[in-house]
Specification:
It is a single chain. This protein has 152 residues and is an alpha+beta fold. It is built from three helices and seven strands. It has a single domain, classed as Alpha-D-Glucose-1,6-Bisphosphate, Chain A, domain 4, CATH 3.30.530. A seven-stranded antiparallel sheet has the order 1-7-6-5-4-3-2, with helices on one face. A hairpin with a 5-residue loop joins strand 6 and strand 7. The chain is globular and about 45 Å long.
Length: 152
């Protein structure tokens, strides 16, 4: 078995909406599909296991909810559909005094040799940069950027 790296990949962005609304955007696929994946087998909740489908790329991910703290934090383990190559993603939603939210995504648990772990971490930062930017555009302006779907 390959050991998991201690390397963490972090991305964060202020979204000018209350934390509860930003949290819901990541937990409820009716909202999340407006800025991230194409479809989901269900919403995120404590103990849930769902499948996210990224149709333009013909890819899906098995998602298991490890921690679900409404309005504040979602911790998932996601992997290939067969459960291989799992890693961890933590979403936190920090309320700011101005009523806005600092949305933070921390990915960890990458496996492989040093080059593979680094490549996975860099891909995670790039991918979640797009996700957060797309969430910001949708939540603040009602604009569906299709930026994740259009990634080459």
């Amino acid at each position: 078995m390959t050991e998991k790296s201690a390397l963490e990949a972090t991305q964060q962005l202020v979204i000018r909406k209350p934390a509860a609304e930003v949290f819901r955007a990541f937990a409820d696929p009716e909202v999340t599909t407006r800025f991230w994946f194409a479809r989901s087998s269900g919403g995120l909740a404590s103990g849930a296991t769902v499948t996210w489908h990224f149709d333009p790329h013909n890819v899906s991910a098995l998602v298991r909810v490890v921690v679900f703290e409404p309005g504040e934090r979602i911790l998932i383990e996601w992997s290939a559909p067969d459960g291989s190559d799992p890693s961890t993603v933590e979403f936190t939603f920090e309320s700011r005094p101005d009523g806005h939210t600092c949305a933070r995504v921390v990915s960890s648990g990458f496996t492989g040799d040093a080059d593979t772990v680094l490549a996975k971490a860099l891909d995670s930062v790039g991918g979640f940069s797009l996700v957060l930017a797309a969430a910001k555009a949708w939540l603040e302006h009602g604009v569906e950027l299709q930026i994740v779907a259009d990634k080459c």
